[in-house]
Model the fold of this input.
Amino acid sequence: MIFEAKEINLKNGIKAILKTPETTDAKMFLDNILTASGETEFLSRYPEDWEGFTVADEEKWICDNRKSENNLVIACYIDGKAVGSCDITFFKDMKSSHRAGIGIAIRKEYWNMGIGSAMFREIIEIAEKHRGTEILELEYLEGNERGKALYEKFGFKTVAVKPKICKLRDGTYQDLFYMQKEI
Ligand SMILES: CC(C)(COP(=O)(O)OP(=O)(O)OC[C@H]1O[C@@H](n2cnc3c(N)ncnc32)[C@H](O)[C@@H]1OP(=O)(O)O)[C@@H](O)C(=O)NCCC(=O)NCCS
Done:
């Protein structure tokens, strides 16, 4: 699926563009996810866990997403540079096609500017128009108060907790919170 370019104004007055990435952005996206994975304890992988994932793999991921009827990626660009993205997967099996899953990651330098809210607004509006979708779901890791605040602002509610899902380098465990929003 493709989201055509849309200009938005961020909290600090900076202009940004929301759009689906092109395959030519693959290296920038891979660099972003590697950096983001090291900037926060709230993504499910460390940068090392991406070892072996290449620019070609990222290119294929972007290409498959653009062609797919079940997946959409909306990225945020500032001055031509991708700073974060949000994706939704509309599940296609008969027993799960009433649900869609959302993921999001933004580079630390750009947190708290309203980018997450802007991408969520668009993704939720698209999901609301998507035939058959009744439930949006997402997960966040223990301690991610910014993420939780964003998700609650958009009407998501925690409905289940899985204990000790991640174990950090220092031995600390994180529970995983599963949220849903009925649309
Ligand atoms: C979580 C994340 C997606 C949020 O995106 P964002 O662009 O920073 O979010 P926004 O600026 O749109 O909104 C953040 C909200 O959280 C609030 N907030 C910020 N820090 C907070 C804190 N410590 N406690 C509670 N609320 C907080 C902000 O005030 C804002 O609410 P408001 O719009 O009502 O003022 C982004 O910070 C991120 O990518 N973090 C690292 C990776 C990650 O956690 N991904 C999600 C995995 S589930």
Observations:
- The beta strands are 6-9, 15-19, 71-78, 81-90, 99-106, 135-141, 157-167, 173-182.
- Residues 37 and 121 are 24 Å apart (CA to CA).
- The two ends are 20 Å apart (CA to CA).
- Residues 40, 42-43, 84, 104-106, 111-117, 140, 144-147, 149-150, 153 surround coenzyme A (CB under 6 Å).
